[in-house]
Design brief:
Helix content is 82%, strand content 0%. It is built from seven helices and no strands.
Length: 152
């Protein structure tokens, strides 16, 4: 009988929690994510157009644009601004290439107290490391398949 009372109390508690829990404003979150992600992409397109206007072909211009965008993501993460943007924009700030830079720099900043080797060096790729390994492995496998299909 005591257990039955406890189950009812847990159900009532969960009902109360569900009533009091703030509901996310889905439309507002979608608009912010779309706007911020779009503005980051517009900035990248601006740099791409700049390099193309200076005589680079579009394929080669992608490299300095990627470098600039990764640098900006890392720089703004170091200043603490990218985290503020991420709180507001959500997924809009993590999808572009700047989100990758943020995922590398954030753990490095967080663990810098542990030293350069065991803190920054060991933790820097804590989040981005699996993504890098998966990307390189997938590229190697696809490259091998392409080579074999093209060879035979």
């Amino acid at each position: 009988m005591d257990r039955t009372k406890q189950v009812i109390d847990e159900k009532e508690y969960q009902k109360l929690v569900n009533q009091k829990e703030p509901k996310p404003t889905l439309l507002k979150n979608i608009v912010w994510a779309f706007t911020v992600g779009g503005l980051i992409c517009v900035l990248g397109q601006f740099f791409l157009n700049y390099f193309i206007s200076k005589g680079m072909n579009p394929k080669d211009a992608g490299t300095p644009v990627s470098i600039i965008m990764v640098f900006l993501g890392a720089f703004f993460t170091g200043l603490g601004w990218y985290d503020l943007l991420g709180k507001r924009a959500g997924a809009g700030s993590i999808v572009p290439i700047t989100g990758f830079a943020n995922s590398v720099v954030s753990p490095a900043i967080e663990f810098r107290r542990e030293g350069l080797v065991f803190g920054v060096g060991a933790r820097m790729f804590q989040i981005a490391g699996p993504v890098i390994v998966f990307g390189i492995s997938t590229a190697a496998i696809i490259g091998l398949i392409y080579y074999l299909v093209d060879k035979f």
